[in-house]
Each structure stands twice: as structure tokens, then as C-alpha cells.
Amino acid sequence: MGKVIGYPYLFYNFKVKRKYFLLKRRDVIFHQTKTNPMNWKNLALTLIVGLLLSACAKVPFTGRKQTKAIPVAQINQMSFAEYDTFIKGNPTVNSGPEVEMVRRVGSRLVQAMEKYYRAEGLAAKLLEFNWEFNVVKDDQTPNAFCMPGGKVVIYTGIMPITKDEDGLAVVMGHEIAHAIAHHGNERMTQALGLQTALSGVDAFLSYRSGQSETPEQAQQRQLTHQVFMQAAGVGAQVGVILPFSRKHESEADKIGLYLMAIAGYNLNAAAPFWERMQAAGGSSVPEFMSTHPSPETRAQNLTTWIPEARELAKKYQ
After folding, report:
1. How far apart are CA 109 and CA 104, in angstroms?
2. What is the pLDDT of residues 147-164, one digit of tens each?
3. Which helix (H) or strand (E) holds 73?
4. What is the Cα–Cα distance from 92 to 135, expressed in whole angstroms?
5. Taking Cα atoms as reference points, which of 40, 288, 10 lies closest to residue 175?
6. 46 with 211: CB under 8 angstroms?
7. Angle, alpha carbons 248-249-252 (nearest 5°)
């Protein structure tokens, strides 16, 4: 039986002898595999640098401190490769009113983000994103996601629930917020542990570049792929259970509302959209909503944050 690594309840078993070290900070578990001393030293140095950098990382807009160990360039490289694979494997809609609206709303929200970043001295971090907006033809699935680095997918099944451009801005602002806050990176770090996250991403990228791999590297790559897809919000198609936490969902709601305010959308459209999403599931909760705050909590939060979002927007108009 596999060991439980990090949280929440991620099981795997690499068939090699390992020593486990518990890092008390945030209950992250380190794994030491048999390797040559130089590789271990390099990895240890990378981990130390990652810890030092992540210890002072703050989420834009909210200021929450977070731990994220995977370099942005690496997680983006993985994200863009997976996004291309997803787009090639799913029917996309390339023209029409819905596509035009998705791209228009996406552009306005990204411009709002850019205003904030430049005003707050974060212009250099805009290079962490390469925004792209696509619509997938699936009328039965009310879903949307944004992968790390800014790759956004909107399913046609969610469009009737959005009703109009303001409603679409709610869901797109929320998904874009996950990327801005680097929630995917944070979740992978938490779930896999720092060393496993770094080595797993490295194994994945090496495999994508055509390099040969050992059986252990193949296992690391497969696990990392599963966890990444779930961490990126594409979770319905994979078996590893790693949902966004309610903390991340609430933070994405708040940042999304801020983006809407700066972009000039109707903030009063936010709570009703989420109520419609809840109702769309009938007696069951839609996959998209499975880890979100309760509708009552969400509506109360969004209503409370509206005056704050409007005041914030005045600084960036």
C-alpha cells in the first residue's frame, strides 16, 4: 500500500527504498531517493532557494502569504504542453457570438489585471502569463478552467447559465484569479511535497523533450501529470482527488470581483450567477461546484466585498 504524501489523501508507492523527513513547516514531507551526491546537492540547493523565495511570496490583490516551490517557467512549460494536448483532443468553437464574447471578456479582465500589476510595481510579473481563451463544444458540461500561465477554457454548457456578459465575467474572473494567485502551483507543492513536485515536473519535461526515462521517473511523471491536471482545475478527467480548497475558491471569488470592478462590469451579477450554477445541478452538485463554498456563504461574501471592490477599482481607472 502506498504512503500518504502531503494532503489531501494522495496515495502512491514508488518501488524504491526511501527515507522520509517531516518538515514541520506546513507539514510538507521530503523524500530522499538514492542518487549521486552531486545531484542531491543540486536538488537540495534548489529546494532551499525555493523555500526562501516562496516564504515571502504573496498573492496579488489579497496579500496572503503562500508556499509555492515550482519555478513559474517550469510549471508554465508543463501547463502549455498539457493545454495544447487538451485543445487538440476536444472540439473547439473558433467563431461566432459566444467565442467573440469569451475573448472580449477575457481581454477586458486581463487589461484590468495589467492595470493593477503596473500600478503596484508588479509589471515584471506580467511575463509569467501568456493568455489564451478557447471555447470547447460541450453543451452538457457547465464547466470552465484556467491553467497556470493563463490558458483558459470555457465550455459551451456554461454559457446559458452566465446569461450575459456580466455573468460570463463572473466565471472568467474567478478562473483567471486562480492563475493570478498561482493556486495550481501551491496545490502541487502541498500535495506532492517540495522535492517530489520539483523532480516530478523535471521528469515530465524531460519526457516531453524526448529523453529516455527510468521506471521511477516514469512513475513520477505519471503522478505529476495526474496531480497537475487536477491542480489546474481539469479534474473531471483524472482519478486523483485534489480539489481546490475552499480557501482558494473564496480567494478566487474575491480577486475575480476585484477584476470585474476594475474592468467596469456589474458586480451585482456575481451572487446570482453562482446561485444559477447551484440550481443547474438539480439534486446533485455540479462537478464545477463540488468544492466551492455554500451558495449562502458565497452570496454573503460577494455582497460584503462589493463596496471594497468598488473602492479598489477607483485607484486603477
Report:
1. 9
2. 999 999 999 999 999 999
3. helix 72-88
4. 6
5. 288
6. no
7. 85
- Rounded Cα gap, residues 4 and 7, in angstroms: 8
Is-above-0.85 flag for pTM?
no
Residue 197: which pLDDT band, with cuts at 50, 70 and 90? very low
Q: How is residue 267 annotated by DSSP?
A: G
Q: Which of 185, 206, 207 minimizes the C-alpha distance to 197? A: 185
Task: Find, among 280, 309, 255, 266, the residue nearest to 164 by Cα.
Answer: 266
**b (16+ CB within 10 A) / e for 17-53:** eeeeeeeeeeebbbbebeeeeeeeeebeebbeebeee
User: CA nearest 302: which of 239, 255, 241?
Assistant: 255
Q: Which residue among the candidates 82, 175, 249, 251 is catalytic per the annotation? A: 175
**Cell matching residue 277:** 450554477
Q: Is 186 part of the annotated catalytic residue set?
A: no
Residue type present at position 160: P
Q: Who's near 296: CB < 8 A, 6+ residues apart?
A: none
Dist CA 19 CA 13 (whole Å): 13
Q: What is the rounded CA–CA span in Å between residue 55 and residue 228? A: 22
- Could you tell me if residue 150 is left (phi over 0), alpha (psi between -120 and 50 degrees) or otherwise beta? left
Q: Beta 132-136 vs 92-93: how paired, if at all?
A: antiparallel
Residue range 13-48, pLDDT digits in tens: 222 323 222 222 233 323 333 334 434 445 445 545
Cis bond leading into 8, ω under 30°? yes
